[in-house]
Design goal:
With 115 residues, the protein is mainly α. It is 72% helix and 0% strand.
Length: 115
Amino acid sequence: MDPKVLETLSQWRDPLGYPWTTYLWVVVVATVASVVKHLNAMKRFRLGKLLLDMMTAGVTGIIVFWLCEARDVHGPMSAVAIAIAGAMGNRCWAEFENIWRIKFGLRKPEDEEPK
């Protein structure tokens, strides 16, 4: 195997190796951002929609935290990225998908030719 790849793999940190307090603050930051966005955008309060947004924000916040750690983004900048991702919610997943499509040269489903 390529020595550069081995060096990268040896420096990679186990995603579940962080203390639970780290995950707690990540989920809290993302969830609070989601709640603020939800309360600002709501026309009628729906508890189910709020809880769904909060769960999506928590998972998205953890994924963004891992991405920040992989790119050595720490501290306040990481917290800002996590909060923005939490506020974006499902739209953040669409952006992740677009980034991967661009990176691997894939077309969007609507851009594909009909069979």
